[in-house]
Amino acid sequence: MTFAQRKEKERVAPMRRMTWLIGAAALAGTIVSSAQAGSPSPSQLTTADHRGGKMRLVANAAAGTLDPQINYTLQYWQLYQSMYDGLVTFKHAKGSEGFTIVPDLAEEMPQAQDGGKTYVFKLRKGIKFSNGQDLTVKDVVASFQRIFKVSSPTSGTFYNGIVGADACLKKADTCTLEGGVVGDEAANTVTIHLVAPDSEIFDKLAVPHAVILPASTPPKDQGSTPIPGTGAYMAAAYDSNKQLKLVRNSYFKEWSKDAQPDGYPDEIDMDFGLTEEAEVTAVENGQADWIFDQPPADRLGELGSKYKDQLFINTLTAMYYMPMNTNLPPFNNVKARQAVAYAIDRKATVKLFGGPKLAAPACQILPPGFPGYEPYCPFTKKPGGKWTAPDLVKAKQLVKESGTAGQKVTIVVEDLAPNRAIGVYMQSLLKSLGYVADVKVMSSNLQFTYIQNTKNKVQMSLTEWYQDYPAASDFLNVLFGCDSFHPESDSSVNIAGYCDKAIDAKMKDAQATGITDDAAANKKWAEIDRAVTDAAPAAILFTPKHVDFISKRVGNFQFNGQYYWVITQSWVQ
Amino acid sequence: MTVNLPAAADLAGAAPSALERPALGPWARAAWKLWSDKAAMAALSLFLLIVLVCLLAPLYASQIAHTDPFTSDIDGEITINGEQVALLQPSEEGLGLGSTPIGPTWDITNYFLGADTQGRDVMARILYGGRNSLFIAGTSTIICLFFAAIMGLSAGFFGGLVDTLISRLLDVIWAFPIFLLAISLSIVLIAHGIDIGPISITAGSLWLPISIIGIVYIPYVARPVRGQVLALKESEFVLAATGLGVPSYRILFRDILPNVMTTLIVFVPLMLALNMLTESALSFLSIGVQAPEASWGTIIQDGQDVLYTRSWVAVGPGIAIVLCVLSLNVLGDGVRDALDPRAKLRIR
Fold it and tell me: Which of A327, A433, B217, B270 could form a disulfide with A497 if both were Cys (CB 3.0 to 4.6 A apart)?
């Protein structure tokens, strides 16, 4: 019986009982008030009240190995946040605050020494792995060596600046990182020595490839065998055809709410094997709490109207773009590339992606809100800071000036619905510019490596880039720097093969500036962004947004700029 | 020409109409038998009608629907009942997420089956897609039967090492699940195409799925042909020809091949149907016909993205495939009944 119902019953009671009732009502009121204080509304519940329950997540497929030093997917990086820790980490907070780097296993952020080439991390005491072992300096040193021993995908790009990394990259088996990562057990410190100052070293140490694992972890890919971690949760079971099950790490004690907060659910299951359609239906029916994959296009309307309260849309620091091979005709001609950039109707590509609520037109390399971002759009009818409309007249004029009309262009796209659609749109567009255009649709498993290898002579492709960490170089240097171009390799992420020595020197200068002066570095990055955008090694299409569809019972949804939904900070009861 | 005619006893139960025309040769008799099979004729008519309609696709697109089924028309509009309607209609409910292509108008001149996710006329694409699907199915059937006939005849007639080599090769192909083999070949070849000596097929060419489909089904035809040749080789008329000193090539082409021809003909509609299904499956998986070319398989794939809201995009080509395969299977039964003497006892 609610308090209101009780009051109504009292109003119709005989008057002769009024005096007694007044006293009783007063007493009841007092009791109910105190009872209400004891069982508050959902918004008044404390952390402890929400603690518990099982959260069920669904995904189309597993994301491969569970080894955090090898896996390079958002799907598991999102989960690793609550399973593993590095010396430093991205703050478990919502929005762009999630880009802040905070000390994690280290007691505090170290000061740069030796001109930015040395950092001394003092480890926190009393932290245990999920197997009960204490975290020690040895584990940290062994983990850094293991990055090279297991040939982590970023060992040659993120960690190659550590002293001794060169030898480790050449001969991984015997990697010691001698003089690079030095432990001092007595002082409980680990010192990292760099070959040269690196303004992004903390970003690189904060990503999952640099998490700390027990020193006894075998130096090879552990596949589906869970590796103990220090986080609030641990993997209890993993079958890549069925389920990944996370349970609480019984040895975990919260040491920093920013770095590794305790979570709400007791168990988190990620089930694999459902189609995107089935995933959506499962969440609609309350059979699942969240879908990892983006909802299919034909369910968006339904979700946006019937389930809008369960839908969260957030802009990503990412881009959909079309690299144009600067070493092959016709795009070895800058005018041909610029013509394409002028001609693309970004509004149309946004529409093909799902509409303006799910993407925003873009025409520069750095995404909005990113360090170094200053609005810039030269390839539009009214050049300025914002894309307005395609300029086909200018585009056709540039094609004419380039003398490339009539040449054959093949566009290689992934076998995903919006990508196929954009590929076909681009084919129509290139035809209208006077090229003989073709589209090649490739399996998602193959396309990204295929378009990187120069042996495949890919002229134009459609791909997307999501930040590894919030630094301008992660877009400009990684995607368009000379060092990222490796001819005849499947791992040449500078897909356009663009290498401008002058711009490359500016990038190195901006990186050096960033060690001491972020603001000045960001100014330089903004200038580089404009220069690379002008050279058009890629046509930037749009900035995508991320859709999270959660079940009714999920509370406290928080979207972190770095790793998206902070799963363990939401509750299911 | 020596043809292994059915014995009189075999014809005892045959239709009177066939027996009333003793002057007819075996081919004419088979044709007459097929002609009198109403189900087979209805199936043939339906199949020919589909082929004809698909052949007229360019005429339909340019003269009736006035659309280009291969070009995106994302911002396009059409007039329905005097009102301008966007081909891709943005959602206006709730958060306004996504857009939905227009559905069927049931007006043959105006997006009869609606538009796909790129604003292209689904009906025109189905007709164009049918041309590719039928072309691939037809050509791969010819390739398959041609090579199967050569291999089956050679293996059965020459025997010995030739038979061993060919039979083992067929065993190897046979050992793979057909779809797994076709998918594997497609994935490998789709990136680079084929470039072996004088044979050069580019990655996006229709000849790539044609070759793959043609090759993977060779054992299905070659093995029965080989078996039949082995039996024919021991028959009296072949032994007599051999005894008379007739050269091997002459026996092979004048005595054995015509007798095997009936088997090959029976296989034509069945292989057409099978190849059409295989092509659709490969194209659905993006490893057959490449965009923006259409086939019924690729259109179904396009329709998968809007299955909830615009099911006709997938259902349309699905119906076309069902009708084609059904008609070919019924026709195949009729052809077999007409050409297989033993089957005559089961016709009526």
Answer: A327
